[in-house]
Here is the input.
Amino acid sequence: MHKTPSGSSLGPGGLDLTQTFFKPINHAAPPSPTKRHTKISVIGTGNVGMAIAQTILTQDFVEELALVDAKADKLRGEMLDLQHAAAFLPRTKILASVDYAVTAGSDLCIVTAGARQIAGESRLNLLQRNLSLFKAIIPPLVKYSPDCILLIVANPVDILTYVAWKLSGLPSNRVIGSGTNLDSSRFRFLLADHLDVNAQDVQAYIVGEHGDSSVALWSSISVGGVPILSFLEKQQIAYEKETLERIHKEVVDSAYEVISLKGYTSWAIGYSAANLARSILRDQRKIHPVSVLAKGFYGIDGGDVFLSLPAQLGRGGVLGVTNIHLNEEESHRLRNSAKTILEVQSQLGI
Here is the structure.
């Protein structure tokens, strides 16, 4: 497939005008070899992949963006469409190809490729349709970028993150699933809406499976530093557990609602993935609820399983998992969530 990178070639034969147009100053040294050149590759240019790519381009933290997809014409069209917006965006070199060689030297590879989720379909039911794709995607990514971090977005994300870890041979800290980062954002939005505050002032996590068995950590929710449930108890303000469960159910059902209305989700996951990419590549060491190798945490055992826990992210990938307090019910639900994933995962044979 023909590639059209951002470059300085004009005229017959692709004449390079850089040396003619710009005259170097005297006594100049070449660029420092330590200068960091950041590259992200996005695998899959469907609605989710392009939302991620577009959001990354607007946030000015990457010098090169590579797109990969099996549909050559659509891929080239998406690349050109983004390149034509160059005057309105931070300078980024944009490449695209059906050949995974275009991803060479990536710091972060974001995998969105997969079958589209059908309205009402459980994320776990997507597994068999997406498993074979990963066998064709992950090995070449690691071949061309052996030092990369993998960020898996395709669903069911927890199991596919495990699959990517197994197929890649990478250390577990460099294989991350987008997990419940978006679920937690939805959770914070709903809580903020109920309390009429800014969602950024709400500290709240959804953990476990990105799906039906996810766990809302009500015991650790705070607003402006004030723990909500303990505050209500101290003030002797009654609340109904059914109300809490209803809010959590809204979080779980929200993606299905969007899919039923517009056919797919894209913008929220685009912002979520770009947010994770920034935290990783800028070494921000922020805490995100993402899918990580969870064995040994919070009493989770029985096998290697990836599910979402609040984790610190940086240039090395997963730097650690926070020791957040879980009450007995939350711990029990989290272990059950792990069992749900392991039951399906055990059928993979890898």
Observations:
- The chain has ten helices and 16 strands.
- The first strand starts at residue 9 and ends at 10.
- The CA atoms of residues 167 and 279 lie 25 Å apart.
